[in-house]
Write a structure and sequence with these properties.
alpha/beta, Rossmann fold, 213 residues, 7-stranded mixed sheet, 6 helices, binds S-adenosylmethionine
Length: 213
């Protein structure tokens, strides 16, 4: 039987890759030093195969991107995409989002993307959802004063749940849409899951939650 490796443990392929940051705890408060430029840091949690974040990095060379993913084999796909595009403004963490405070300092991030996170449909699993209030309080502390969270999902119930959680955590909601692909949002970069669900005819839900000053 194949043993599943824990994120953060030693691993042959990922440990050799220069785009995957080893011992990310060492860069807490110093993430700017990892990049070749000073710029905003945008993080995607649950990056998956990386279509979204690598396209964003390509289109916005002045922004520094960090993709976080806990599944090694999936992360490898994202890393390969970034390498093919020869991107210099992106790195990846093979890491569990439950441990974000170990790697980022308060106010160090400007934007967090959560795209098509696992819905954990049963009520008793609510605390595992990446938009549950305890996660949101952590994100809020890591974001700078104007910091924002951008959220997309195909799951109506998760979207409703998340809107409620954003409000409970005193985040201001803006640009809410219940059908992103029919909305007038000018530029939308899709994820792999988004392409799959929209090809099935499902609407995509999206909103932005910003910190109040
Ligand atoms: C449903 S997939 C969506 C992938 C991608 N964002 C997309 O839209 O195509 C969710 C991803 O989040 C990752 N994930 C779930 N919980 C996580 C956590 N606590 N920390 C890091 N990654 C996580 C999963 O491994 C999976 O690759």
């Amino acid at each position: 039987m194949r043993r599943r490796k824990k994120p953060g443990s030693e691993e042959k392929l990922l440990s050799k890759d220069k785009l995957v940051v080893k011992e990310p705890e060492k860069y807490k408060g110093k993430w700017c030093s990892v990049f070749q430029q000073i710029g905003e840091i945008h993080v995607e949690i649950g990056t998956g195969r990386g279509q979204f974040i690598t396209t964003m990095a390509e289109k916005n060379p002045h922004i520094n991107y960090i993709g976080i993913e806990m599944k090694e084999e999936v992360l490898l796909r994202a890393v390969t995409k970034a390498e093919k595009k020869q991107l210099e403004n992106i790195v990846f963490l093979w890491f569990d989002a439950n441990r974000l405070i170990e790697v980022f300092e308060k106010g160090e991030l400007h934007r967090i993307y959560i795209n098509f996170c696992d819905p954990w449909p049963k009520n008793r699993w609510a605390k595992r959802r990446l938009t549950y209030r305890s996660f949101l309080e952590t994100y809020k502390s890591l974001l700078d004063k104007q910091g924002e969270i951008h959220f997309k999902t195909d799951n109506e119930k998760l979207f409703e749940f998340s809107l409620n959680e954003f409000s409970i955590c005193d985040l201001r909601l803006r640009n809410i849409t219940f059908d992103l692909h029919q909305s007038d949002l000018k530029e939308n970069i899709t994820t792999e899951y988004e392409d799959k669900f929209s090809q099935m005819g499902k609407p995509i839900y999206r909103c932005e939650a910003v910190k109040r000053n």
